[in-house]
Amino acid sequence: MKDLGARPSRPQKHAASSNDLGGETQLKRDDRSASNEADLSRRDMIKLSAGAVIATSVVGLDAKAAAQTASSASQAKAPLFFTSEEFALVDELSELIIPADDHSPGARAAQVAAYIDFRLSESWEEEPKKLWHDGLKVVEQLSNEMHGKPFLQASPEQRIALLTRISQNEKKPEKPEEVFFKELKSRTAYAYYTSKIGIHTEMEYKGNSYLKEFVGYDAT
Predict the structure, then answer these.
(1) Tens digits of per-residue pLDDT, 148-199?
(2) CB atoms within 10 A of CB 58
(3) Which of 71, 164, 192, 219 sits 20 to 30 Å CA-CA off 139?
């Protein structure tokens, strides 16, 4: 997996265990502990092993509406690396991993898909490019096998079932779809956390501020 660099520091709010996120429904709230590892997610080390994790971004949407929402992002600007269909799929997948909630917008608003598209377009390495092309094909194949339709045409519950399936072995991925999920989540997290929305809205980073008075310690 390509290392995209150090992630921004976070405000100290909630400490979360790396193995305690499988059944959580409030993905954002549980994972704002400080970390410097770029491959950890904004809802740190989410497993997506429970459907409720992803459901927060798709509850109340029918399949047609969700597909239209995902595809609309691809129409705004022509992708540099992905095809338009691939871009729409990445846009939807990233939003399912980091959905909007009452605290901050999700991956779509932070233009995560566009960031991933740009980074892949400028990469000199062929391996990550192949991983993404092949991985997205596998997602579509699995969706057709499981539900008889492409991912963006599937219902919210069907998409949840597919993501739950490919995320089950995140720590030790073996199957192509499992390897791709780990890469997808890592890039999504990094793109989000280095965006203006991720840094300032989600993490509430205010920047450095001057102290009017330095209160030192009297050691005498």
Answers:
(1) 999 999 999 999 899 999 999 999 999 999 999 999 999 999 999 999 998 8
(2) 21
(3) 192
Q: Are 10 and 203 in contact (CB under 8 A)?
A: yes
Instruction: Supply the angle between the helices 84-97 and 176-193 in degrees, to the nearest 10.
Output: 80
Do 37 and 7 form a contact (C-beta atoms < 8 A)? yes
Is there a contact between 158 and 147 (Cβ–Cβ < 8 Å)? yes
What span, in angstroms and rounded, lies between the C-alpha atoms of 128 and 155? 29
For residues 170 and 44, what is the distance between their CA atoms, to the nearest angstrom? Answer: 13
DSSP string, 118-137: HHHHH---HHHHHHHHHHHH
- Amino acid 120 reads L
| pTM for this model (two decimals) | 0.63
Q: Where are the domains of the chain?
A: 51-202
DSSP single-letter state for residue 208: -
Distance CA 96, CA 160 (A): 9
- The model's pLDDT over 142-162, given as tens digits with 9 standing for 90+, comes to 999 999 999 999 999 999 899
Nearest partner of 98 among 139, 142, 44, 35, judged by Cα: 44
Place of tokens 């057709």: 144
Write out the two tokens for 50.
Answer: 């429970």
